[in-house]
Write a structure and sequence with these properties.
single chain, alpha/beta, Rossmann fold, 2 domains, six-stranded mixed sheet, six-stranded parallel sheet, 8 helices, 31% helix, 24% strand
Length: 253
């Protein structure tokens, strides 16, 4: 006879800061909708090494979201990593389970899945051949992985002078040629709403698709300046919903 589970299911998110995160509210609403007795905890870590303390204190954790700045740093703590997350070299979702009484953590990347679904809905049947990815952090790698699978060429744009494009390199010809521009940086996130990537917005047209992974505020300065040039715009809220649903599926397989 199977014993009844005595402990409430527990999930959470690690990152710093977490004031902007939608995850806690999203999953708590999900628990109510599904009539599940569960808890979601924000673990705002000042250092990734503090993850061991969290794991020791909360041995009933079933799943963890991972956000800035730990999507890459968390990998060294994992026993396994999915092929896509390995290619991306960033993890945003962890499944925790005990195998032979020993904790085992498997890392996944659902950001790229959430982005792919949202992007294909955004561009529809439009033919996009090339894109600019603003930023070079963990989120940018997930976006690049998605674009690669969708056969869209891309270039990274960075504030640093490196082997990527610099913002100063974004000429009218480059912006005109790249009909899709994706902001993967946190610029413009609440409460710093007056910040935006330094591109030449006057070169944008009605033929451009501008995607911002930021979702709070719903229209960032980046999106507003793009919309004023008649470009099509979309924020990252749907992507966030999508990736959360993929994480939920993984945690409950």
């Amino acid at each position: 006879m199977q014993k009844a589970q005595s402990k409430m299911k527990k999930y959470g998110i690690i990152g710093n800061p977490l004031g902007h995160s939608f995850s806690k509210q999203y999953f708590e609403n999900k628990f109510k909708q599904l009539n599940i007795e569960a808890e979601f905890i924000n673990f705002e870590l000042s250092n990734i090494n503090n993850i061991t303390e969290i794991l020791n204190k909360h041995k009933d954790l079933k799943g963890l979201c991972v956000t800035i700045p730990y999507k890459e740093q968390i990998i060294k703590y994992l026993e396994r990593i999915s092929p896509d997350a390995k290619d991306i070299a960033a993890v945003n979702s962890i499944k925790l389970e005990y195998i032979d009484s020993k904790l085992s953590m498997t890392g996944y990347n659902t950001d790229y899945l959430g982005f792919s679904d949202s992007l294909t809905d955004f561009i529809g049947n439009s033919k996009i051949e090339s894109a600019l990815i603003l930023g070079t952090g963990g989120a940018s790698k997930a976006v690049a992985h998605s674009l690669k699978k969708l056969n869209i060429n891309y270039q990274f744009v960075s504030r640093r002078k490196s082997n990527t494009l610099h913002y100063d390199d974004l000429t009218e010809e480059i912006i005109t040629r790249n009909k899709l521009i994706i902001n993967t940086t946190p610029l413009g996130t609440f409460p710093n709403c007056n910040n935006a990537p330094k591109i030449k917005y006057e070169y944008l047209t009605k033929n451009h698709f501008i995607f911002d992974l930021v979702y709070n505020p719903s229209e960032t300065l980046f999106l507003r300046k793009s919309r004023e040039q008649l470009a099509k715009t979309k924020n990252g809220l749907e992507m966030l919903h999508n990736q959360a649903e993929y994480s939920w599926e993984i945690w409950n397989i």
